[in-house]
Amino acid sequence: MKRTCQRTCISLAALFAAGCASASGARVTPAASAVRMKEMWEPLVALAGEWEMTGQDGKKMTACVIEVTSGGSIVRERLFPGTPNEMTNVYCMDGSDVVLTHYCHAGNQPHMRATSGAGGKFDFAFESVTLPAADAFYMGSMTLVISDKDHMEQAWNSVQGEKKTEPMVVLKAERKK
User: What residue spans of the chain are helical by DSSP H?
Assistant: First the structure.
């Protein structure tokens, strides 16, 4: 009886695994090469830590806190932590590109993709967003420039309806010492 139960459990586990692997809609994307990981992923991982910026009042404030998590597969960035405008960005590799999901305080989650990280510059282009109305506001693109290990800048552009803005938010941050 015990052996039959073990075989049944093993068979069910194998069927479940096979079903997950062949689920409709699954997209298999080859992993990035080591060279591509060095260009696209390692600069983002190196951002882990706390970053400061000068606020509108002229005082230093926490711009973001960045951590590598989920077994090293994502970089999570908390923008303006502890404030009413706190937001989260999640970066991960999707094949040879970096994708970004911006969890906005406006309540939407635009998805963006960067296809190059050459020279520490990542241009995240809009891919998709779910909105409650066609004229709702959302972030439509972001350029991240990593100048060196202690300095970075993010320039965010928004979209409302068909209208795109010049950089709406420019975050210039330096690593907290």
Answer: 2-21, 34-40, 42-45
Q: Give the global pTM.
A: 0.83
Of 38, 88, 47, nearest to 67 (Cα)? 47
Residues 131, 132, 133: CA angle, nearest 5 degrees: 90
Output the CA–CA distances (angstroms, integers) from residue 50 to 32, 122, 149, in the order listed.
Answer: 28, 20, 12
- Check: CATH 2.40.128.20 for 31-175? yes
Sign of CA dihedral 36, 40, 43, 48: negative
Q: Where are the domains of the chain?
A: 31-175
116-160 pLDDT tens trace: 999 999 999 999 999 988 888 999 999 999 999 999 999 999 999
Distance (Å, whole) CA 145 – CA 97: 16
Q: Are 143 and 121 in contact (CB under 8 A)?
A: yes
Q: Please say if the pLDDT value at position 4 is more than 60.
A: no
CA-wise closest residue to 40 among 90, 82, 79, 92: 92
Q: In the chain, helix, strand, coil percent, each to 5?
A: 20, 45, 35
